[in-house]
Structures are given as structure tokens and as C-alpha cells.
Write a structure and sequence with these properties.
By secondary structure, this protein is an alpha/beta fold. It has a single domain (2-123), classed as Flavodoxin domain (Rossmann fold, 3-Layer(aba) Sandwich). Helices cover 26% and strands 29% of the residues. It contains four helices and six strands. The protein has helices spanning 14-27, 49-55, 72-80, 82-86; strands at residues 2-8, 32-38, 58-66, 69-70, 94-102, 119-123. Strands 1, 2, 3, 4, 5 and 6 form a six-stranded mixed β-sheet that branches. Strand 3 (58-66) and strand 4 (69-70) form a beta hairpin. The radius of gyration is 16 Å and the shape is globular. The two termini are 24 Å apart.
Length: 135
Amino acid sequence: MAKVAIVYFSGYGHTAKQAEAVCEGAAAIADVAVTGYRIDEAGELPLDAWEELAEADAVIYGSPTYMGGPAWQFKKFADASSKPWFNEQWKNKLAAGFTSFRRSRISGHCPSSTGSCGSEPACFLPIKRNMGRPI
């Protein structure tokens, strides 16, 4: 059975909704076990998460986009993941990611396809790396 880990931070709940949808979609695939890990407000994962991430076959990352980049809580997790990455502990894992962002109204123009200018989902393409070396 393949193991998929979803690691995400959600400040206002929009990214959490996306993480739930990603989890449901991955869990619908036969022989796939999915576990979600929410990064807390201090930028920390649950204690057992690092061991379980090491055992996962794929990791899907999620963060809201704030000021053109990921939330600092997600960045803190990404920085902490440099040790297993550098030691190639995550080599040959599949990786993907998703984000959410809020478009703003500028001069009365709303670029949203829905016209709502609310939280608009966006999805990254799978990362073309094997969590260790470029493919």
C-alpha cells in the first residue's frame, strides 16, 4: 500500500479546505493510505510527523500565498526539512504542492473568473524532483 502525506499550513481555513479535498482525492485511489499533517501557528508539526514523512512514498505540500510567497509557518517547516533532504532520506519520493491566494480589487477591476475576488484556489504542478536529486 502506498503512503501519501499531506503537509500544510492554513491561516484562515482556505488552505485547510484544499488539503481536505486533496486528501479525499488521494484516498479514493485503491491501495493508497493518506495522512494529513497541519503545521500549527508556531510553524511546528506534530511530534510523530517527521518519522511518518520519512516512511511516506509521496509528500504533498500546501500553504497559502502571502505577499507572493508561502506563509512563514510553512517556510519554517521547509527550512527544518533541509536535514532529511540533504541526507537524501527523502530520495525517490514523489512531491507535489498546492496553494491558495486572495486577489485584490484594483481600480474596481476584479481579475477573478468568478467575479468574487475571494480566496481563489491554485494548484502547483508536481515538482520535477525526486526529493533528493534532479531527475
